[in-house]
């Protein structure tokens, strides 16, 4: 796995991670699995992408914007993962994602939103980045972020 | 475990799986655990059972219909599990279910819905099919399916 | 880990667990991980804390009450964990929490609610109680409980 080299090719710089918004840690490693806390769409310049997804349903975030926000969420997950394991080259497989979309009532195309994160992971890790997944619409997310994703990642020692 | 024989006794035929609705795979195996993607109530004749659950709360799907839909969701999970591991006889234990119900506002009997899946798993795997579980009401599900369930299953090599 | 001694110091008595509200078990152990079913804020005198969280948003449960309810939920998780493994002194690490808040529309401070459970776990297990976590707002919870939390805990044999 040459994930770190891929990141450079893709022109992606992982930013500083923001501190947890509560009594938790960004990641816990147990055996060869890393459990990553629910992460959000941190803007490169600071702040998060917020609002309800689904402009046809009265929300303020379009599907295209939400998909980009899911990619930003993927960047935060990678930041936290590297912070936990040192180098993304240790990744064996992205095992599982739980994608949660802050949906306006009636917006149901949640898989297309979470694809923004999955696409990034496939670009970085190849087919090892194509995980098992659920993509659901939830009532509210912390501080009104428009998407939150948690992940389980298998690593080598 | 004679789960395959039980399926025959129960008269259950596992259908073809539908392709994933996004950039994910139906299942990932890591060590002796299989992580199954969130699955839905695929009708035997095609299509999914859709709508909000709770006819007394303005929804279009009754509790009884939702429970049957959760059983159909269980069938899709078994289909994907067999596709991943070859034979259901390799199952040691259904470890964990996360059941998500597309609730009409005010419908709170989500455990009775997800019992439709758990009942199937107990019929097929015996007490090894009785998992740890959460059963929650979510705001929206992909393409308005009425229930979605993800699972973690322990297998033998 | 002297978690049992800490419980005594904190004056916390773990009550009898209530039976599962459906076809599931309170906990499943797989390898060195215990998967705890979604648990709720059981009152010491019986019954659960119910209602939508966010009194400024039309709910009936304040943030302070919800945080105390999350602590009660933590007590139920510890009860089920001890029931599964015999002694909390076997705990190596609280790996992952999924905290689900029964939010009134517009209440987004879900991390502060789930902190009520995390704080308890840190009191009992020290830094090993500080887990990876997601804290989300869901549409409905079983029987209208105001918070539900599921957990993965690593134990020694």
Short description:
3 copies of one chain form a homotrimer. Chain A is an alpha+beta fold and 157 residues long.
Looking at CATH, the homologous superfamily of chain A is RutC-like
- What is the CATH top level name of chain A? Alpha Beta
**Mean pLDDT, all residues of chain A:** 97
Number of discrete helical segments of chain A: 3
Question: Which two chains form the greatest contact, residue counts included?
Answer: A-B, 35 and 25 residues
Look at the helices and sheets of chain A and give the structural class: alpha+beta
Task: Report the β-strand fraction of chain A as a percent range.
Answer: 15-25%
CATH architecture of chain A: 2-Layer Sandwich
* Element-by-element helix/strand order of chain A: HEEHEHEE
Write the layout of secondary structure elements.
Three copies of one chain form a homotrimer.
Chain A: H1 3-10, E1 27-30, E2 33-39, H2 63-85, E3 91-102, H3 110-125, E4 132-138, E5 147-155
Parallel strand pairs in A: 3-4
Antiparallel strand pairs in A: 1-2, 2-5, 3-5
Helix pairs in contact in A: 2-3
């Amino acid at each position: 796995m040459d994930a770190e080299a891929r990141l450079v090719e893709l022109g992606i710089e992982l930013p500083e991670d923001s501190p947890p918004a509560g009594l938790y840690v960004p990641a816990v490693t147990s055996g060869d699995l890393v459990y990553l806390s629910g992460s959000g769409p941190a803007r490169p310049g600071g702040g998060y992408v917020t609002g309800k997804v689904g402009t046809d349903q009265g929300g303020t975030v379009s599907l295209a914007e939400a998909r980009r926000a899911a990619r930003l969420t993927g960047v935060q997950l990678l930041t936290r993962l590297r912070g936990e394991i040192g180098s993304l080259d240790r990744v064996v497989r992205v095992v599982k994602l739980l994608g949660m979309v802050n949906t306006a009532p009636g917006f149901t195309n949640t898989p297309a939103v979470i694809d923004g994160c999955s696409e990034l992971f496939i670009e970085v890790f190849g087919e090892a980045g194509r995980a098992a997944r659920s993509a659901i619409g939830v009532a509210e997310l912390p501080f009104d972020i428009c998407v939150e994703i948690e992940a389980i990642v298998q690593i080598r020692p």
